[in-house]
Amino acid sequence: MSQLPRQEDINVYDSLDERSAVRSFLGRTREDILLRLPGEYESLQEDLAFMGPVAFAYYAPAWEEFCRTRPSDNPEETENIVRWTLCIISIRCNGLEDETPGSIAALRRMLSWCEAFYNSPEARAYFTAEARFWGYAEPLLRMPPELHEALEECAALRRMLHE
Fold it and tell me: Is 65 a member of any domain?
């Protein structure tokens, strides 16, 4: 879709969440949204999660670009963004039968980015440091519990997206 999504593309079922998405996204390009994401990603992710599939397929590349271009010098913030991304995927997987091929492709790309983060040495170091900070030191060779849980969540979502 190269045209901006219409109101009915964003608000399919007239839910409160979709109405919020209309206020945040209607009339805005991907580039407009990309400029807003650094300061508003926590609220915009919820709108992305609940908007209609046609609009999601249009706006998802802005979220993906935001994720790919974030500085990686703050692993805590990166992990927060990954968690929000997993929330988007999880919510959208609840209505997978309503998704379009374009929105499913975007969800798969987002999930791949999340998995790449969780499988990176930076993530392992971050979660290991967090585990030590909170007093349940994990040996470097063992996977910290939060990292294991995150990877399990990714695997479950991947199964949903391939079924």
Answer: yes
Report how many domains make up the chain.
Answer: 1
Q: Which pTM does this prediction carry?
A: 0.85
In a domain, 2, yes or no: no
pLDDT by residue (tens digit) across 27-55?
Answer: 999 999 999 999 999 999 999 999 999 99
Specify if 1 maps to a domain: no
Residue 23 lies in a domain: yes
Q: What is the number of other CB atoms lying within 10 angstroms of the CB of residue 80?
A: 13
Structural domain boundaries enclosing 79: 7-162
Type of residue found at 41? Y
In the block, residue with structure tokens 């519990």: 145
Q: What SS3 class is residue 127? A: helix
- 101-104: which pairs have CB atoms within 8 A and are 24 or more residues apart? 102/1, 102/53, 102/54, 102/57, 103/53, 103/54, 103/56, 103/57, 103/60, 104/161
